[in-house]
Design brief:
Shape: globular
Number of domains: 1
Number of helices: 18
Strand content: under 5%
Largest sheet: 3 strands, antiparallel
Order of helices and strands: HHHHHHHHHHHEHEEHHHHHH
């Protein structure tokens, strides 16, 4: 298996080279590196996030963003340092996918090689955003849960949420999964650990600057619907049929829409997310109670599949769907490939490829509301909806006997 891991890491490094030197994968005309660099410089000089430097992310995003600045905060120095930093994070993601595949009855080699194809599918956005780090923490948390270490798993999941908020939707899935297996003590203790980790980290941010921490929350509550999100497509459709004007706004470091029905549409999509997570909880809880392969905990695959599908739902149904959010979904595709769920793996790959075609080459066409560009975004979002639908179908399917691939 060491050879397979080495092959995957070599493939990943080759893909990273594509994102640095070969078009269209190297297209980085729109990225967050300038924002990260301007944050890293004062923090490395001793400033505190929230208190001395405005910060929109959870507290643990600060080191994920600032560490490459130790090499230098000049444009080129930071660009290269961040590329190497995210390459390390992507390598962790690939290896964790392999470990999860092995413990859930999948093919370890297929998982690692599929994860190593991430830069080919996504292009430069993979190395110009820090999302690989919360994704790695998510995979580590799921791995600990599958290995029957629930308190450690929930602790790492809390760290993931404190790096970027989206993994919070995995917590109810994991709690439901434990409760359905009669592990009430593990469920409530894990939930307490999860809450305590987040409270401790968030509390440190509040102590550093109550106003700054509150401003970070207000930032996300006040920002308008982002142009590439599913709610935005609904608002644009309403505008097209004369049901209210969708006004374009450039604020909060993104491009959004204001519309009289925006609050209602956001609420409807939030409700849909809650319903989806509840359904995934039920499917994770009731699936895989019997027939698991030797060495595979009952329902372990269902936990991983439902948890990662919940993250996909967070991206699809939220009021913001920045292109880098597709990174959250890539491990689901890699593991689906390892489990030989080829339709699901193909749908995830399609989401990534459509995102790369749209961003950044046609992003400003989306902002200008060019029909073809908007159609491309709509197709991407439909493909992500298909990912979630296929995941639900797999969770509903009878639990089949599985053959573990030797490690």
């Amino acid at each position: 298996m060491r050879r397979a891991a080495l092959a995957a890491l070599v493939l990943l490094a080759a893909g990273w080279a594509l994102t640095l030197w070969v078009g269209p994968w190297s297209d980085e005309r729109v990225n967050d590196l300038f924002v990260y660099r301007t944050f890293a410089a004062p923090v490395l000089d001793g400033g505190l996030p929230y208190r001395d430097v405005a910060f929109e992310y959870p507290p643990l995003a600060a080191p994920a963003i600032a560490v490459p600045g130790l090499v230098g905060t000049g444009a080129e120095q930071f660009r290269w340092a961040f590329a190497l930093w995210t390459l390390a994070g992507a390598a962790a993601v690939a290896l964790l996918c392999g470990a999860l595949a092995r413990l859930t009855g999948g093919d370890t080699r297929r998982a690692m090689l599929a994860a190593a194809a991430m830069p080919v599918l996504c292009g430069a956005l993979l190395r110009t955003h820090f999302d690989v780090f919360p994704v790695a923490l998510v995979l580590a948390a799921l791995l600990l849960l599958v290995r029957d270490r629930p308190r450690a798993g929930f602790a790492v999941l809390g760290l993931a949420v404190m790096t970027k908020a989206f993994p919070i939707v995995i917590a109810p899935v994991a709690i439901a999964w434990l409760l359905a297996r009669g592990r009430r003590r593990d469920a409530w203790q894990g939930a307490l650990v999860f809450a305590a980790v987040m409270a401790a980290i968030a509390g440190a941010a509040v102590v550093a600057s109550p106003d700054g921490a509150l401003d970070a929350i207000r930032y996300h509550l006040d920002r308008p619907v982002q142009i590439e999100s599913s709610p935005a497509l609904v608002l644009l459709a309403l505008d097209a049929v004369g049901a209210g004007h969708a006004e374009s706004v450039s604020s909060f470091r993104s491009d959004g829409l204001l519309h009289p029905a925006a609050a209602m549409i956001e609420s409807l999509f939030l409700t849909a997310l809650v319903v989806l997570v509840a359904l995934l909880c039920v499917r994770a809880a009731t699936g895989g109670r019997a027939g698991a392969a030797e060495g595979e905990p009952p329902g372990s695959r269902e936990l991983v599949l439902a948890g990662l599908a919940a993250c996909a739902g967070f991206a699809l149904l939220g009021k913001v769907f920045s292109p880098q959010f597709v990174i959250w979904v890539l491990p689901l595709g890699a593991l689906a490939f390892a489990w030989r769920m080829h339709a699901l793996a193909g749908a995830v790959a399609l989401v990534a490829v459509l995102t790369q075609i749209e961003f950044p080459a046609h992003y400003f066409d989306v902002v200008a509301r060019e029909p073809l560009a908007l159609g491309l975004v709509a197709l991407r979002n439909i493909a992500l909806a298909a990912v979630i639908g296929l995941a639900l179908r797999e969770l509903r399917a009878p639990h089949r006997a599985r053959t573990l691939v030797p490690a």
